[in-house]
Amino acid sequence: MPVRRADVIDAAMELLDESGLDQLSTRRIADRLGVRVGAIYWHVKDKDELLAELADRVVGSCLAGVPAPDGRTDPPADPVARLTAAAHAVRDAMLAHPDGAALVAGHAVPGPNSLVLADRLCGIAREAGLPLPLAAVAGDTLLSYVTGFVLQEQRHGDPLHHQPNTPAPDFDPDRLPHLAALLAEGLPDDDTVFAAGIDLLVTAVTSRARPRR
Hints:
Blueprint: H1 5-19, H2 26-33, H3 37-40, H4 47-60, H5 79-95, H6 100-107, H7 112-127, H8 132-155, H9 177-185, H10 190-207
Helix pairs in contact: 1-2, 4-6, 4-7, 5-7, 5-8, 5-10, 6-8, 7-8, 8-10
């Protein structure tokens, strides 16, 4: 049975989930499908195109949590809740795959799903009362924060060996009193930190809203 483009993308996603981005190769994809490597290039011109397809699929998996703005409602649905939900949906989509954030950050050229996500984030910010240029910046800033946060999460490695409350060997509490106090109090987990960061961002975005007429 001939290999289809969708088969190539599916096999690549399976390998990504099994081994991570560094171990993903067209040869391993071909082996998974039982074909020669050349058969892969009938469907994607190179590995960059393949990774772009994977990145766009990851982004696409979050769109159900980022509904399109509905300008027909009066007043519009709560933009704070919508932006917050969107941020969590994007994070969840990236965390669902090893190196998901690195894949999206490095290869999400403007694919169909990536463009839809950008448009929806911009639209929600516009419904919050931001002028169009600032709404676009707000959506991009929110997405950049989520991607950067998940990049750090996924680089922590094995959570059993990650000890965020352990200071560096040369940590000097007298020179770094605020960080020392934070360590003494105990660092919150990633979910708590992410939620707090999104709350700060969304609050800042909505504070720039123009009064609605």
